[in-house]
Amino acid sequence: MTTKQKRSLVRILASAVLLVIAWALPLEGVWKLLVFLVPYAVVGWDVLWKSLRNIAHGQVFDENFLMSIATIGAFFVDEYAEAVAVMLFYQVGELFQSVAVGKSRKSIAALMDIRPDSATVLRGGEAVTVSPEEAEVGETLLIKPGEKIPLDCVITKGTTSVNTAALTGESLPLDKTVSDDLVSGSVNLSGVIEARVKSPFAESTVSRILELVENASEKKAKSEAFITRFARVYTPCVVIAAVLLAVLPPLFTDQPFSEWLPRALTFLVISCPCALVVSVPLSFFGGIGAASKIGVLIKGANYLEALSGVDTVVFDKTGTLTKGTFTVSAVHSDVIPPEELLDIAAVAEVYSGHPIAACIVKAHGGHIDKTRITEIHERAGLGIEAVIDGKTILAGNGKLMDTVGAKWHPCHAPGTTVHIAADGVYMGHIVISDTVKEDAADAVRALKSVGVRRTVMLTGDDEKVAQAVGQNLGLDEVHARLMPEDKVHAVETLLQSKPAKSALAFVGDGINDAPVLSRADIGIAMGALGSDAAIEAADVVLMDDKPSKLARAVRISRKTMRIVRENIVFSLAVKAVVLVLGALGLASMWLAVFADVGVMVLAILNSVRALHAAK
Questions:
Q1: Full strand arrangement of the beta sheet holding 391-396
Q2: Model confidence pLDDT, tens digit, residues 116-147
Q3: What strand order describes the sheet that includes 160-163?
Q4: Do residue 441 and residue 535 come from a single domain?
Q5: How far apart are CA 604 and CA 214, in angstroms?
Q6: What band does 588 get if pLDDT is binned at 50, 70 and 90?
Q7: Model pTM?
Q8: What CA–CA distance (Å, rounded) separates 553 from 550?
Q9: CA dist 500 to 80, 495, 497, Å?
Q10: Pairing label, strands 174-176, 160-163
């Protein structure tokens, strides 16, 4: 427990003891009032102060105001013990709320611990300890075993193992050596390493993630926003109703004010909307915390709520369902020797950052003379156009060949085909194979098991390759040979055909698929560890490369929403029944305490279950 919580507990216990003593003392009149005022002041002074402060700022109708009016009124009608008990149990409920919120924050607090406290920089041959913000791009970091990696960097000396559990939810360490990238927020486990800073701390992965988590509570779900609006209208309405209940019956009947005033005060205590106002946001916070434990970052309660209604999941192929680690599996040349065809393709692709280009360059293996290139253009969705040794070389798909009338032909071998043409003459093609992720098929089956009706794959790849992957994974639909704008159009078509009040999620790498991520109901970035663009583009971020976590995130969201609905129905039902009983004079102040504090405590305890939704 925090220091503040411990102080609250001491006040509650002290007030309870003083209440028992006041109850036991045989006092009457003003002495009885003074004795009961002591435990009341001990436990309720802060509520009275908050009420006065809020009234001074024009915020009259809240739970502090209701508690203050109800308990002060109880003193006026000689219900001293009841007044102290109402305030006492209200503070018990507040303590429960504080502890529950603390537990909800604990899972996210573990994530917040990824923020490094310092960085050791090598300057002038000496190791200097500075704050991460002071380290500059290009400087060399010295990172010892057990230390957090302070900034995004690349290893220049040494080998080690790195734990990314705080970012991905996975405890299995990753081996790293020279030229490998390191992500801020992960932990160096074994070796002493030196690493060159790639980006300033403000642009690092850890900063992006912390900003995302800190802002998550600002984006309210529809249910949460409704409760906020409901409380703003509901609270003044019940205050007015209580006033009318105290005044009108005595005016129009022969019954005295002393009979109806206690009913009105009981009505006020019952009507306090604490259970809803506290438990609903707490449930969403717990769900977001549970998702963060498994390496799934949800940017707000609105996205958590939308995720619970997912009916259609659309996947990108490369890097999402497949590893995106391509290898050259065949070189088929029509005019020149295969090694010469590979050489031309490698020169054309040498400046491209695309994974296919990288694997062609890697397959070449030898020295690539970049001076042979005089012009180079990357044509989105088609391939590369370059002038090499004075010839216009095209390397890409069939559509690119069609632009110059090159007479290309499809390849019988499975994989992605990169066709090569020189000055409009077809030279041959290179076959690139990608590997399906180990848990991709499990991910699709898991989504089906949680009720996702439709799974779709969109890819710019060849139809034959796409269909083979789709059949292997058990996908419902496959759309191949798509340009980036075609993917957006395909998602828009799927959005029109989905059931009403359901959601469509698009899962991509968050970099090349930003337009589609933003067009879908929910954009989900895969393998975003170290990718600032992915964290920015998506609504939900899966920090590693495991698509199977998507189904777990859907389960968490649905359990959270079930808890939210349970709290809303339970709280409103109990309050409605007890409010009627209170108005009829059939509910005592003790029953009012249960309807307020008791329901709030039960709703909070139910909300805490959202923390364990990942299990």
A1: 327-333, 425-433, 416-422, 391-396, 383-388, 373-379
A2: 888 999 998 899 999 999 999 999 999 999 89
A3: 174-176, 160-163, 187-188
A4: yes
A5: 22
A6: confident
A7: 0.67
A8: 5
A9: 55, 10, 9
A10: antiparallel
Output the CA–CA distances (angstroms, integers) from residue 105 to 93, 169, 364, in the order listed: 18, 16, 52
Query: Is residue 209 in a domain?
Result: no
If one counts every other C-beta atom within 10 angstroms of the C-beta of residue 279, the result is 31
Instruction: Kindly state whether residue 203 falls inside one of the protein's structural domains.
Output: no
Q: How far apart are alpha carbons 273 and 286 in whole angstroms?
A: 20
- Measure the CA–CA gap between 257 and 268, rounded to whole angstroms: 16
**Helical packing angle, 222-252 and 257-271, nearest 10°:** 180
- Residues with a known catalytic role: 316
Tokens 């059949």, residue located: 471
For residues 372 and 345, is the Cβ–Cβ distance under 8 A?
no
Residues 182 and 166 grouped into a single domain: yes
SS3 587: coil
- Quick check: 267 and 586 in contact, CB under 8 A? no
Q: Which two three-digit tokens encode residue 339? A: 């090694």
Amino acid (1-letter code) at residue 363: A
Last residue of a domain, one of 487, 520, 543: 543
**Ranges of H-type helices in 419-483:** 440-449, 463-473
Residue 443 is part of a domain; what is its CATH number? 3.40.50.1000
Write down the H helix ranges in 25-150: 29-56, 63-76, 80-112
pLDDT of residue 605: 82
Tokens of 417: 């085909």
Assigned token pair, 600: 């709030």
The closest alpha carbon to 376, from 414, 349, 416, belongs to: 349
